[in-house]
Amino acid sequence: MIRRVEATGEPLVVTRHGTALATIVPAEGAGPQKALPATPHIIALASLKGGVGKTTLAMHLAAAIAQEQERVVVLDADEEVSALRWQQHAQAERVALPFEVMAADRNTLMRQARRLAQEGCTVVIDTPPNNREILKSAATVADVVLVPVLPTGLDVDRLATTLELLTDLEAALPSFNYAIVLNRFDARKGMAHEANQALNAHPRLETVVKSLSAYEKVFGRAPVELGQFREIWAEIRAALEDEQ
Predict the structure, then answer these.
(1) Domain map of the chain by residue range?
(2) What per-residue confidence (pLDDT) applies to 205?
């Protein structure tokens, strides 16, 4: 009853057999409790297939989130350390990235990500291909898992192995969110439209990442083509808010 009064800001009359016994009133200054917008603290980019653009997506998404959130960290869990090398090239050119890239500790990845989130960071995890253990760790600790896929028949076919693993995690975890994000979409190609249609059978983002030359030239620089990634960030937050 007290929670109801706190939530609505309205007094509540307690009765017994139709007779009023007491009235619970809200504390002075109390009113309806407004739901805070849903903000994921940990996002994992995951796919067992390589070459789908996880690092590029992670860096651009981190830059888009950094326009709203004060502290954003990319955790680089990939053996090729592409995100870390991106940051090193930027530092060598005296280019400031709007977020920090840190090496992931593979043995304590979940604790490392959770600790950063508890310190107020929004964490984006860049995972390696063909590594089920790292993918499981990243996906387990993440509030949202994004699965990049390219618009080709081979990539859509290879998506099944990643989705099988994520579906197992979904069955085991009380709260688990994942979505496919179509990457490098070229509207001029018929296969791209076929792949886009095929993905509708799975959890996916409405936003697709178009194939732009700017994404190919941005390594070692601060990402600037962020419109699609702001849309992805907004879509993720809206989806989580709907679940609350």
Answers:
(1) 42-233
(2) 96
